[in-house]
Amino acid sequence: MTTLRSRIIAWAGRMYLARTQKKGFDLSRMSFLPESVLMPLRRDGLNPVGDLAAVREREPVSKLPVPIAANVWLVTGYDEVKAVLGKANAFSSDFTNLVGKAGAGAEQNPGGLGFADPPVHTRLRRLLTPEFTMRRLGRLTPRIHEIVEERLDAMEKAGKDGDPVDIVHSFALPIPSLVICELLGVPYEDRADFERLSAARFDLFSGANASFGAISESLSYFRDIVKKQRENPGDGLLGMIVKEHGDSVSDEELAGLADGVLTGGFETTASMLALGALVLLQDPKHFAALHDGDDVVDSYVEELLRYLTVVQVAFPRFAREDLEIGGVQIASGDVVLCSLSGADRDGKLGPEMEQFDPTRNVPSHLAFGYGIHRCVGAELARMELRAAYPALVRRFPNMRLAANPEDLEFRKLSIVYGIESLPVRLNG
């Protein structure tokens, strides 16, 4: 177990360095696009840029000046985003909409849930859903708490002489990586490949061909894992699906589902852990409240999810028919981009939505999406956040930032927003 732990932590470090050097999920090379197109991915620290709020107030459904044949619409209003994401019959998410565009070929379909429409999506989600119920996830609860405590022990050791400790490297990255290993049931002897492909998988926008190549290699790896699970099913997610569904689910489908779980469950939770810690560190009142009371943990987690909304834009939707959204006519074939970060700050939800306020009572946030494509792993993410945040502030009650806030480096143009490094001193 010690060897496994050290290897995965080492991978998390490599992941951090690779992101710093390559800017995974970074679109900054796409300078030919107008600023209005890139604007939904920009932030000022933790906050979406003011232009996003201005567009939302003026035109919650606005046309983007993108140099392609189809119309592209940006949807920023809460009600309007829910309307788009909730109309699976009117909008398609299928990968075939991308074939022939951005270097994508039919053979590069990653499978899984994100780029599938019903009835394929419906059948695949039914395979996964039982594995993400609270009853099934309950078996992971003790291990999640063990992983959190292990990371806190490592942080304490690293900072015992007063040296700064990086929360991103030491806490935020390792926790979800280890949890996903447990969830999928990846064999110990295969962890090295798993780690390497995880890092490559998230360098999505370093170029279309490189991105699809990483996806293809990742799927090839998971096909091998699935083959082993067929021969000797374990107690992880893949093994459980094999035991319960047998040959009714193909190896290709299982590999795509595993790749989707890895894609959706690592980077997003890691970003939430790091950015949530920053929110708490910037306000002693909130830090103390979470330190002192178990009864506030759920409300803090939900408000952090809304306030940060680290997945800034949902997968593109392609209109199947002519329809109206927010008083705007969308034509069949148009592309629709939904700003989740913009929708979750919509003033229609209540006053001062640009502020972090865990006492507020608002409708459900859209941090996990909405409709049939709502994140299937939402409850697992919540379990990790509910375990990690209070444990962090209670182990290190005197923890303080070890850098000037203005010097912190955030991702500049990123679908999954995050911070590159968050140095702290554990004893003030």
What would you say this structure looks like, in words?
- Keywords: Heme, Iron, Metal-binding, Monooxygenase, Oxidoreductase.
- GO terms for molecular function: heme binding; iron ion binding; monooxygenase activity; oxidoreductase activity, acting on paired donors, with incorporation or reduction of molecular oxygen.
- It comes from Streptomyces nigrescens.
- Belongs to the cytochrome P450 family.
- 48% of the residues lie in helices and 8% in strands.
- It has helices at 2-22, 35-38, 50-58, 78-85, 120-128, 134-137, 141-158, 167-172, 174-184, 191-201, 208-231, 237-245, 251-265, 267-281, 284-292, 297-308, 340-343, 378-395, and strands at residues 43-44, 47-48, 61-64, 72-75, 91-92, 165-166, 317-319, 323-325, 328-330, 335-338, 400-401, 423-425.
- Helix 1 (2-22) packs parallel to helix 10 (191-201), helix 7 (141-158) packs parallel to helix 18 (378-395) and helix 10 (191-201) packs antiparallel against helix 11.
- The strands form 4 sheets. A 5-stranded mixed beta sheet has the order 3-4-10-7-5, covered by helices on one side. A 3-stranded antiparallel beta sheet has the order 6-12-11. A two-stranded antiparallel sheet has the order 1-2.
- The radius of gyration is 21 Å and the shape is globular.
- It has 428 residues and is an alpha+beta fold.
- It has a domain at 112-311 and 375-423: Orthogonal Bundle (Cytochrome p450).
- The protein contains 18 helices and 12 strands.
- Strand 1 and strand 2 (47-48) form a beta hairpin.
- The model is unreliable at 1-31 and 199-211 (pLDDT under 50).
